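#onboarding

Welcome to the new folks! Below is a worked example of what a typical request in this channel looks like: someone posts a single protein sequence, and someone else replies with the predicted structure as tokens. Don't worry about understanding the tokens yet, we'll cover that in week two.

Example request:
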Amino acid sequence: MRKFITFTAVFTFLLFGTASMYAQKSALSDKIKKILYFNPEVEPDIEEIKEPTNHAFFSAVSDHVSGYNKNKMLRTEVEVAFDSIDKATIVDYCLNNDADFAIVPKVRYFKVGIGKYVFSNQVVVSMKLFDAAGNFITESDYDTYRKNMRLLGSAENSIKIGTNGAIKAILKKLRKIKPSSEAGF
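Example response:
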């Protein structure tokens, strides 16, 4: 009888201890992370292709983010230069929008042919990830021609594929940088 009481007491203690650890872990992991996306810098700088590029880019981002319940996408209508990013700008936008992270994207179309406005449907989507303090965390790029060897298809579809590939590459790099419990944004 004494062994039964001891076994029951130990089992009950372990059960309550495990339950409290689970409650603490779920409370920490349930925090919704807000990610601020700027309008992508489009290269070449032609006004006619910016709006369709923005629409395709944010369509792909919203499709990707909607699959994760812990994330919230915030969008700004501001285009930030990809190569010369001002830390103060990132901090101001993150502070004003209550964002945890900021992503600065760039979409570069391939130029094909002799003409000035002849483009391929292939793109390179590049992204830089910053925290709310404006510190650079990581960057990635996705070349739709080299990765998928796609020759046919629309430019809109290429932008969506490139955006998904760049986001997945950033997540992969984050898993290497941070422990697995903090990795996904």
